[in-house]
Amino acid sequence: MATTEKHHEASTPEPLSFFSQVFHPTGITSSVENYHYKGSGTMEDPYVVVWIDHDPRNPMNWSSKRRWIITMLVATALLAVAFDSSAYSAGGQLIIMEFGTVQIVFTLGVSLFVLGFAIGPLLWAPMSEMFGRQVMFAFTYGILTAFNGGAIASPNIQSLVILRFFAGAFGASPLTMAGGVIADMFPARERGLAMSMFSAAPFMGPVLGPIVGGFVGETVGWRWIMGVITIFTGVLWIALLIFLPETYAPVILRKRAEALSKKTGMVYKSRAQVEQGDTSIGELFKTSLSRPWVLLFKEPIVLLLSIYMSIIYGTLYGLFGAFPIVFQQVRGWSTGIGGLAFLGVMVGMFAAIAYNAWDNKRYVKINDESDGFAPPEARMPPAIVGAIAIPIGLIWFAWTNYPSIHWFACIAAGAPFGFGMVLVFVAIFNYLIDSYTIFAASVLAANTVMRSVVGAAFPLFIPYMYDGLGIHWATMIPGFLAVICVPFPFLFYKYGAQIRKKCKYAAESEAFIRRMQKEAEQGDDDGEKGEDDASFEDRDSSEGGEDVEKEKEENKERPSEATYIAYGPREVMLETEEAERLERLDAEARRNEGMEAREEVEEPLPGSDPAVVAAKKSGSLRRLDSNASVDTTGQPKFERIKSTRSRASSRGANGSGLVRVKTYESNPFDLDRVNTRESFVRVKSKKSLREEGSGDLRGRQ
């Protein structure tokens, strides 16, 4: 069957406006339509849609400004949900008096909301794979706002706590997808600060909730607390509708393939569709509901670190019950002023974000020295610092909450707790992702479910524990638990590599990373050996040398965007030895073709097929063998050259600088997706560049 080739232009693709990407996610331009896709455009051999070079619709190619705006938007959406979880607690006495209920029933409004966080990741992760992040954010956040609005008019405590549960379940979507959006846009080495903001948001929101809710409740009543929450989430819902484009690569490419098929009448499919077929929502749910539990109970790393994070998370939500007792009942503060006690925790969180930004330089250095494959244990040093800070803060708070001691000493104790909490969460999140690359989504889902269940339980027994043990020893209980867990980060930092080898899924993930590292090194060797073949790039023969040189200059200026090879969700490497073999055959065929062109007569032989001659001149055919086999008409036999990625897209200009970039379509925040090693950029060291001479460097500029 004849193979139709889709050629691409050498020039930079047409830019896309921001709003066109929001409302038209496929990003189809003439460059996209005319790109050189593999395949024949038939049902048996469809065109395989991947990112084009410098694709403006690829989230990894967006400007830093755009990426940070979107990061702030989704982080704020996550913060609003966390704010929702705790602001309700500020209206406790008002709700109890109006509905004539008891403390534990009122507390269900917090616990059931947080319990909804345990259900959300199991639902929204697989649905985001099927429909995309943009659609799921719009749907779930709209429903969240509706349930918050319904809570304003609740006629009784039963309807209020039920509405709170459903609000928590739908509000859990940012917990699942906000981190995925960040992973879609930032390579691993640049993701540290963005992940710090993402990880701090679930804690910053609960701290802000009692502060705002306290003043609103004592001023205009508890229903206005729910009103403020509804306004907050409603405004963010509108902002998400207007400013959040689709960032999940498999969905973008699938929709692009569908649009190209409809527009051209040919058959286009994304890489994921070609390699694994169309996955049903039932299959996704089956995996999302079963695998997290397998990993939680069969992997010691997941279990121990999830227990540790659950204790910290539960302690935070336990403070929502402890602070009103210490500051309002014991010290006699009002509801609004009592909420200000959480400012100490907030200060510690901001300090942790700054610390992570500073520590990220250390990680980037290790990552570069490891050729983009830093060991997971490199993530743990901040967790060691945080693990020490958490018990210090809790013990400090336990023995300074006497009424006779100045209030500032008690509030200041929240700073080391908030500082340590964010450091531990960011480090462990990244450690789990790096340790369980291909299973990262299931690991994070298991972690989220366990944290949410514990976080839902703590507020229910905290009041009784403080009544029975007193404000000092009741605070020491989570303090003692935090002390017991202090060795965990150091244990995994020191012996993590040995532990991972003994864990089935962690060992499998490590083997996956080693294969990628080996293939990346092989790619480097192939790039060095192929420097002499730079003139035989896979180009349309009609392209001029000027365009080639122009694209080379662009590749030197923007090496991080050299080329993005689209991978399927569950693939390791799709273009490996076979792709390299095809490239070498292609280059050899073009060299042979160049020699043949100088020997051939311009006029075709009598009886020759004009289509064959034209195809041969265009470079799409080559001889089957050096003996020039002939067909029944006496004409030489030719085979069509299989389409491959251009050499310029997998090598830097002149074979130097950037050698290879491999980007996964997927990421760890979705069901068994991996994006933790999505960019393997191999750049020559400064030493080797100096050896080439400053004159040579100026010449390439």
Q: Termini, distance in Å?
A: 45 Å
State the domain count.
Answer: 2
Average pLDDT for all residues: 76
The CATH class name of the largest domain reads Mainly Alpha
The secondary-structure class comes to mainly alpha
Order the strands across the largest sheet as they lie in space.
Answer: 1-2
> Count of DSSP E strands?
4
Broad shape: globular
Q: List low-confidence stretches.
A: 1-10, 531-581, 595-608, 615-701
CATH superfamily of the largest domain: MFS general substrate transporter like domains
In angstroms, what is the radius of gyration? Answer: 29 Å
CATH architecture of the largest domain: Up-down Bundle
State which percent range the strand residues make up: under 5%
Structural commentary:
- This is Major facilitator superfamily (MFS) profile domain-containing protein.
- InterPro entries: MFS, MFS_dom, MFS_trans_sf.
- Keywords: Cell membrane, Membrane, Transmembrane, Transmembrane helix, Transport.
- It comes from Zymoseptoria tritici (strain ST99CH_3D7).
- With 701 residues, the protein is mainly alpha-helical.
- The chain has 2 domains: 415 residues, Growth Hormone, Chain: A (Up-down Bundle), CATH 1.20.1250; 145 residues, no CATH class.
- The protein is 67% helix and 2% strand.
- The protein is built from 28 helices and 4 strands.
- The strands form 2 sheets. Strands 1-2 form a two-stranded parallel ribbon. Strands 3-4 form a two-stranded antiparallel ribbon.
